[in-house]
Amino acid sequence: MITQARSQHSSAQHHCASFLVCIAVAVLGCGTKNGESASLNTGVNGLPVISGSQLTEYLTENSLPVLVEFGVDFNCSRCAQTKNDVLRLRESLRGDVDVVRVDFNSNAQTVAELGGTICPTYVLFDSGKPVFTRSFPVAIGLLEGEILRQIGE
Hints:
Blueprint: H1 2-28, E1 41-42, E2 48-49, H2 52-61, E3 66-71, H3 77-93, E4 98-103, H4 108-113, E5 121-126, E6 129-135, H5 140-151
Parallel strand pairs: 3-4
Antiparallel strand pairs: 1-2, 3-5, 5-6
């Protein structure tokens, strides 16, 4: 009986701690803020980086569908884990889909409005409108297949 009570108490503590971590990430984002870029440039991870304030204009002026990675360049193990896969995805989609990064922390409200939950979050836009949103964990190969189906390849 005591063992069962301890197990239930431990389980409740674990769920509470998990919930608090989720709230902290939602409120604080992940990694550290390094500010938004002022223009399209290449971030530390090799993806072109645009600021959140430039996103709408960039999406509407781009003739290609755009995959936006909402992530951070520093102090996020999840973003670091997917970095090379996203660069390979960018090369694979070259000419069919543009792939850029927007800072997650500076644009957490936008990410939430698009249905994202954690960084990195990937949103495919076509003609300036969101087509789908996927948040980590994401298998990049499956993401690529979904993108290709959406663009009719």
